[in-house]
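Researcher: Before we compare anything, I want clean individual predictions. No alignment, no superposition, just each chain on its own. First chain goes here; please echo the sequence and then give the structure tokens.
Model: Echoing the first chain and its structure:
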Amino acid sequence: MWTKPREISDGAYQGFGYEISYGSSGQVTPDDALRAWKRSQGHHEVIVNKGIWFNARWHAMGVAVTGGYALVWFGKEADPAK
């Protein structure tokens, strides 16, 4: 799981991180995904650094929304591509 940012960035991001995703049978918008993540305690805690994520420090982030899916990854190391 900690290598998911590397996988979904086609190797562009080499640091460790964590991803959250949202899927629907229809077209997904960023607002749809954010609403769902806010309602999900586990997803929300990753985004706002609560619970077991309290000490996590995210220094990079990637986002994709396409078709019926939305994905965000949070990385522990700075993204060298920025």
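Researcher: Okay. Second chain, same rules.
Model: Second chain and its structure:
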Amino acid sequence: LAGGQHIESVFIPEERRTTICISSQVGCALGCAFCATAQMGFLSNLSSGEIVEQVLRVQQDTGRKITNVVLMGMGEPFLNYSRVIQACRIMSDPEGLAIAAKKITISTVGVVPRIRQFADERQPFSLAISLHAATQPLRQSIMP
């Protein structure tokens, strides 16, 4: 990225699909105890173009079309909501990357106002909520 910043994108090839796990931010502000990205702190939000570019670069590097996208890399996607949604629209647009909307999954640790907004807007993308613990006290001890 510009300014020497780095993000991660993970290519997950399988027999019937090719998945990429992509980042939405450089670093993360949430500080979850189990997450290496939390040690970086928050540096910046990615633009919608930088989010989409991760898919394009992996397709170019591997020569394989990406069929599934998970926004589960660095950062909390719902703390960069508008850019993430715009990137998902580009990825799912038939004139864009033409990845089926239901095969694009946005993962959140539970940013409730954005979950409500996502539902109210009836976004066509899949949603994953990462709980990380079976009980609320344990969850609160490892996540903000």
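Researcher: What stands out in the second chain?
Model: Residues 2-108 form a domain with the TIM Barrel fold (CATH 3.20.20.70). Additionally, The radius of gyration is 15 Å.
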